[in-house]
Amino acid sequence: MQGIELSRRFYGEIVRPWLNAVAPELSHAAALIGYGSELLGFDDETSRDHNWGPRVHIFVTRDAFGTYGHRLVRDFTAIAPTEFLGEPIGWRNRPHPAASGDGAVGAIEHGLEIHTTEATLRRMLAIDGVNLNSLQWLGLPEQRLLAFTSGAVFHDDDKRLTQLREALAYFPNDIWLYKIACQWRRIAEEQAFVGRAGQVGDDLGSRVIAARLVRDIMRMSFLLERRYAPYSKWFGSAFSKLPLAASLSPLLEQALSAQAWEERGNALAAAYMLLARRQLADGIGASSEPVLGPYHERPFTTINADDLVAASLAGIEDPTIKALPVTGALDQVTDLTPVLEDPAAAQRMMAALMA
């Protein structure tokens, strides 16, 4: 049994009946969000060695948290079973401590946590609501947005948690187009270097650049499919489930395994063309026809990425977003974990980048 189903049953068979008995008046939502491979459905036997097991987050209002939060967690400790469906409910080998702080409480003895949605938004995304400006959206790493919007909601009395997740389910259209344009800019900067490095005998350098471009192609695929990309551990697994992966994967594998830089570059160029045609099919940049050809007078197969950047930007309606430098959202600029996993710092860095 995978973790989401285990937690769903833990809530339905243990926690919900107990809450109905001890606090029948308590309006709440029950969910599993935030962290864990089970939120994406990628948990397996190895996942069970940490941060895995019967657990559920109960979301209540701030007033209800003050009245019920600590008491319920404490009282559940006294009645909780030691295991559920053969799995221990204690926090075995978990590097994440039990929830504790403003608007969050848990216990190391079991997997029941009480939260407020306000504190969860601040902790996970450093925002106080979903009425966000463009810089706030660009400072939200996709892996953090995915952590909030993936997983599952098992119960929701007032629908607040559900509505927040729906509001953050994907980027607004102008932010999406801006990120697509910036992703083409990334490709434009390096696509010719695969051939140039190979041409001078630097095969290792050519392979490294090709691998970077493969990652950029995969990131573009998530954008075109309107899916948030997870962090590196599950990046390839999640990519393989995208509809675009069926046609792109053979080309990307060819680019990574090619022995000659010409074959490497041609495979990447074919992948660029697939992305560009998908973009056109979705109505993005209809004024720009994608073309493969040599890089100026040099014999490196590239795509007219600059035209695709401009075509993507042309669809943006918000003049504030249209006027931004074509550098990208924070997670297009850096993949440094201490930055992306510190939401407040991410927001500050995004503001400084665009200042």
UniProtKB/TrEMBL annotation:
Q: Where is the DUF4037 domain?
A: 137-235
InterPro entries, from UniProt? Answer: DUF4037
Q: What is this protein called?
A: DUF4037 domain-containing protein
Q: Which organism is it from?
A: Devosia epidermidihirudinis
